[in-house]
Design a protein that fits this description.
CATH class: Mainly Beta
Number of strands: 7
Number of domains: 1
Radius of gyration: 17 Å
Number of helices: 2
Structural class: alpha+beta
């Protein structure tokens, strides 16, 4: 049985995005389209390089995990599929920490420096993610369901407080 919601939960509305529903759907379409276009471009580039006799390892084509501060919302699209991502600055800018599995202790590069979040999880089962304010899945937390994102704005108490995260069943959020 879940206890009374914490102050953090009440303040951030359980991780629900603050973007109107219709805008969320349009944003999701734009993101899928951008990923598809990027995938096609990368395949074309790889094909050209292969034709030129150049071989590349898979890691060479991976997305960067850090961005310039002025990168803006394009950082949202850099979150790898099946992972949860947290950015250092609002609007999905700055350093991006990400992980596919659970993390009891975030890297010093992002711990207590997080200001925007995205659950790019896939599949079934534990597809929601809890972001905790303390190590070892302790302290206050908020949830992001699969495909949800949240961006720090001045009234959220979750800014710069993330320390660990755990994938959970959506019913646990």
């Amino acid at each position: 049985m879940r206890s009374k919601p914490s102050t953090l939960e009440r303040c951030i509305g359980h991780g629900r995005s603050r973007v109107p529903h219709s805008q969320e759907k349009e944003t999701e379409k734009t993101q899928r389209r951008a990923k598809h276009v990027m995938s096609r471009k990368l395949k074309s580039i790889a094909g050209l390089l292969a034709a030129a006799g150049v071989t590349l390892g898979a890691a060479t084509l991976s997305m960067p995990t850090a961005q310039a501060d002025g990168a803006g919302a394009s950082g949202f699209n850099d979150c790898p599929t099946s992972e949860v991502c947290a950015w250092q600055h609002p609007d999905y800018r700055g350093y991006m920490g990400h992980a596919e599995g659970n993390s009891k202790n975030w890297s010093n590069k992002i711990e207590n420096k997080d200001s925007s979040w995205y659950n790019n999880g896939t599949g079934t089962g534990n597809t929601s993610v809890r972001i905790f304010t303390k190590h070892d899945y302790k302290g206050d937390w908020f949830c992001l369901d699969k495909g949800e994102y949240d961006n720090y704005d001045n009234d959220l108490s979750s800014n710069d407080r993330g320390s660990s995260h755990k994938w959970v069943d959506p019913s646990d959020c």
